[in-house]
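SAMPLE LOG
Freezer: B-3
Tube label: C17
Construct: single chain, 217 aa
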Amino acid sequence: MNQEQPMIQGIARRFRGFLPVVVDVETAGFDAQRHALLEIAAVIIRMRPDGTVEPSAPLAAHVLPFVGSEMDPRALAFNGIVPDHPFRDAIAEHEALTRILNPIRKALASTGCNRAILVGHNAHFDLGFLAAAVERTGYKHNPFHSFSVFDTVSLAGLMFGQTVLAKAAKAAGLGWQNSEAHSAVYDAEQTARLFCTIVNRWQALDETRFWRDPEEG
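STRUCTURE (predicted):
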């Protein structure tokens, strides 16, 4: 058996057939049906030969506001996005979803996982905007579970006593750059690093690998 095979089997076994994928979105408000999706980034989590996990390179897209969408000025002031900036290099929602979701579907096939599970900080917010974009565009074969998530708010609260992403990242020893925050890529990468840190520290607490398949005894 080659070195890749245990990793392929391992991540499917570790998360009960789910492939963790960190997603972060930047939006023009809080209502996924009315407000525009402006940025999306995803980081697929992969397993090392020793059974620990690590982030892969991010997938990302700047997104054109869908026709008829609304934009809350307060949200734009918060994330600093100028939707019609000529250098934003934004693409239509369906193209953005294809760029992000097609590699995730390929990762499912290569790892033996059944579904992707969204990892996020306040994960249902990101899942809601992703699901709304999928519905609007008619994107076929969304790889994500429709309602289950791993939320790093809860995980970081358990592990570090912190629920704010910046504070949790600092508590985990990952650092934080305020000037980079509220970019989908930066927040997704930091959330992925936080998730991996928590999973790896938790695994280290039990040398017997508590996640071993119970059928193996």
